[in-house]
Amino acid sequence: MISIVIPVYNVEKYVSDCLESIIKQTFSQWEVIMINDGSSDGSVAICEKFCEQDDRFKLLEQSNHGVSVARNAGIELCRGEYVLFMDADDTILPNTLEDLNQITQKTKVDIISFQYQKIVNKSEIHEVEPPQELHVITGDEALTLFLREQKIGISMCTKLVKRSIVENIQFEVGRTSNEDKFYLFETLLAVNTALVLQEQYYCYWTRENSATTKPFDERWFDVYYFAKKIYLTVCEKKPEFEPDARYQLLSSCYFLIRQMDNKKASKSYPEEYRKLCKEIREFRIADIWNNIMPQRRKGILILKYAPLLYKMMTK
After folding, report:
1. Rounded CA gap, 14 and 26, in Å?
2. Partner residues linked to 194 by β-bridges
């Protein structure tokens, strides 16, 4: 059985589509653990209706503590061999669970990473055929791809993972951004085998109030917080991966600097901006140069070796 964990918070406009996409699965051995995180709209009534109609749906109530607390609570109730996380305003393709289950039966891998398609309206959804070739890799190989930001995205919503692994890992509470990234990092430290698919089974619906469309605020600095935490953990537990961990920290710092420049936020957070720029200047990059995306190389070099010129260019 596959257990699906879904935090629910004020999503009455979207949660029905999410749950309907699960009912329409061509694979029937699933359970859905919904965690109402203190919703104040009609979300709970919708979830309760699904529970009444199908006993594979279960609803847990909690006061508003955030998605991390909700997911941690949901994991404790899971009974399936594998766990899938979903956001309540997204959907999955009808053949998602069947394809993923068949793959786990063939390969017995600890984790499957797949892709998402970015959706604005239903006409954009495209169906996906099951993969023809399955190439199992080691946990260390998967960790390398993750740290190099290659093929494995940071969202846990595009991962199917053994319950025996994730039941021993907790989402960090108190952070509002990038908590998935560190959770996935800890998961990859624990897995022995992995499978990386390019099939886009998950439908990520873009909303007007999504994090990427909101103004820059302090929540964005969680990106740096978790990237630094990953780096320090790697240095302690997996020092042979230090260059790759340094690359993901460099990438996160540069991403934040560019976001602050684009959103005119550097004057609102001057100390944080200076700290990120200082990190870039102090990075050793010769041994990770090939990992840096070509479109970022010029900006990183100027920021590192000619900060005054960079400042002039971004005014």
Report:
1. 22
2. 111, 137
**Residues 82, 3: contact at Cβ < 8 Å?**
yes
Which among 131, 37, 49, 35 has a CA at the least distance from the CA of 78? 35
Name residue, tokens 């999955």: 92
Structure tokens at 259: 């976001």
Phi, then psi, of 112 in degrees rounded to 5: -115, 125
Per-residue pLDDT at 209 exceeds 80: no
The alpha carbon torsion through 211, 215, 216, 218 (nearest 10 deg) reads -70
Residue 163 has a pLDDT of 98
User: What amino acid is encoded at 98 in this protein?
Assistant: E
Q: Which residues contact 312 (CB under 8 A, 6 or more apart)?
A: none
3-state secondary structure of 227: helix
Strand partners, 83: 3, 161
pLDDT digits 0-9 by tens, 99-110: 999 999 999 999
